[in-house]
Amino acid sequence: MKLFDVYPLYDVTPVRAKDCIVYDDKGVEYLDFYGGHGVISIGHSHPTYVSKISEQVATLGFYSNAIQNPLQEELAEKLGAFSGYPDYTLFLCSTGAEANENALKLASFHTNKARVIAFENSFHGRTSAAVSVTDNPKINAPINKCNPVTFLPLNKIGLVEAELKKGDVCAVIIEGVQGVGGLDEGTKDFFKGLENLCVEYDVVLILDEVQSGYGRSGRFFAHQYHDINPDIISLAKGMGNGFPIGGILISPKFEASYGMLGTTFGGSHLACAAGIAVIDTLEKENLLSNVNDMSAYFIAEAKKIPQVKKIKGKGLMLGLEFDFEVGELRKKMIYDKHIFTGSANNKKLLRILPPLTVTKEHIDIFFAALKELLNQL
Ligand SMILES: Cc1ncc(COP(=O)(O)O)c(C=O)c1O
Predict the structure, then answer these.
(1) Is residue 251 within 8 Å of 88, Cβ to Cβ?
(2) Residue 373 CA, ligand 1 centroid: distance in Å
(3) To test ligand 1's pocket by mutation, which of 39, 119, 237 has the most ligand atoms within 8 angstroms of CB?
(4) Which of 6, 41, 132, 210 to mutate to test ligand 1, by most ligand atoms within 8 A of the CB atom?
(5) Which CATH number is 37's domain given?
(6) What's the CATH code of the domain at 155?
(7) pLDDT at residue number 377
(8) Are 375 and 368 a contacting pair, CB within 8 Å?
(9) Are 169 and 116 in contact (CB under 8 A)?
(10) Is the CB of residue 175 below 6 angstroms from any atom belonging to ligand 1?
């Protein structure tokens, strides 16, 4: 059987990885400034992560959500304390799209309404409701287009109020910092305005922190730069350092009932072991402070490069904007310099999503390679 051919592939076959370095089947070393699309948080094959998952799979990898699972409680306790949301509750699932799917469903149950306000250039995943609030008609099939969604530009609070006044909106969903779209973000005033309007019109504010969460922005959640408390926060990616785990943090104002949400695989013993290893390591190794230090160093180095027209993003969720499309540059970074980077809807943006353990030495290697390639253009 062949694979359903939906991914354009680079001709590289990674077979192992350690911290920020990925090794291919020929033994070539690649510097990972892509983190498998913002997924690797505590570094590839971190020893705490490897031993925690190995011990768990050898003991009990999975049962179901119909029995007691103290690992879920341990993860919820640690995540609540570390993220600053100890009074929120946690629903566990397996992916970012599933997290948003459940966030939107909960908002709709709670308000008994259906229309959603989302933002231009947003990305929230590829399942039914999540893709319908994603601003990309190419990945929305007719079945997804049945969900009522209104897309608005970022930072136009008056337009949001005009829509909420109509009384049929269940949720506003927004990324902490836009990922796939190209690192645009709401201003502090805009986020504050959204919080106020959602309270005034009894609409659920959903912060999609699937990519910007788990320390990547330099705070645990990117919205914490804006001093707001969303009603629901969705998570995935860095939460499991590669193990599929996602979740939503839910404000105490929502009441749960049996059967309201559910999943077979979400919150399995193995997924919780991965999640606990990640949160323990983020805390023990003080990785948020590394994110802030390395972000400042990266930005200072980027500013020295005249071809870089704009530096976007926060923490280690960064983008370098050029006045040309970066497709060829990315290929050369991979094939000639052995460095992985990311792309965005904005074709002129080179995206940087390294593991949160990245060092100055790694950043120096990246810039030496980038400068050499830019001088050849
Ligand atoms: C902000 C955001 N939300 C949701 C998703 C979807 O996550 P997943 O691919 O795990 O379903 C992504 C994936 O890139 C994302 O960046």
Answers:
(1) yes
(2) 31
(3) 237
(4) 210
(5) 3.90.1150.10
(6) 3.40.640.10
(7) 81
(8) no
(9) yes
(10) yes
Residue 35 lies in a domain: yes
237 and 347 assigned to the same domain: no
Are 79 and 37 in a shared domain? Answer: no
Residues ≥6 apart with Cβ < 8 Å to 99: 93, 125, 210, 234, 235, 236, 246, 247, 248
pLDDT above 90 as % of the chain: 99
Mutate to test the pocket of ligand 1, among 37, 123, 206 (most ligand atoms within 8 A of CB): 123
User: What mean pLDDT value characterizes the chain?
Assistant: 98
Q: What is the pLDDT of residues 110-145, one digit of tens each?
A: 999 999 999 999 999 999 999 999 999 999 999 999
Ligand 1 center–CA 376 separation, angstroms? 35
- What pLDDT is attached to residue 87? 98
* Other Cβ atoms within 10 Å of 96 Cβ, number: 30
267 pocket-lining for ligand 1 (C-beta < 6 Å): no
The answer to whether 261 touches 102, Cβ cutoff 8 Å, is yes
Residue 117 CA to ligand 1 center (angstroms) comes to: 18
- How far, in Å, from the CA of 263 to the mean position of ligand 1? 18
Give the pLDDT band of residue 90 (cuts 50, 70, 90): very high
Question: Does residue 95's CB lie within 6 angstroms of at least one atom of ligand 1?
Answer: yes
Distance from residue 332's CA to the centre of ligand 1 (Å): 26
CA Rg value for the chain: 20
If asked whether residues 72 and 19 sit together in one domain, one would say no
The domain in which residue 335 lies consists of: 14-46+286-376
Q: Show which of 284, 308, 327 is a domain's final residue.
A: 284
Q: Which residue has the tokens 């970022």?
A: 154
Q: Which two tokens stand for residue 117?
A: 């306000």
Over range 205-226, report the average pLDDT: 98
Ligand 1 mean position, distance from CA 84 (Å): 23
User: What is the tens place of the pLDDT at every residue in 290-348?
Assistant: 999 999 999 999 999 999 999 999 999 999 999 999 999 999 999 999 999 999 999 99
Residue whose pair of structure tokens reads 């269940």 in the numeric block: 170
Query: Total structural domains in the chain?
Result: 2
**Which residue puts its alpha carbon closest to atom 7 of ligand 1?**
96
Write down the pTM of the prediction. 0.98
Q: Which atom of ligand 1 is nearest to the CA of 37?
A: 14
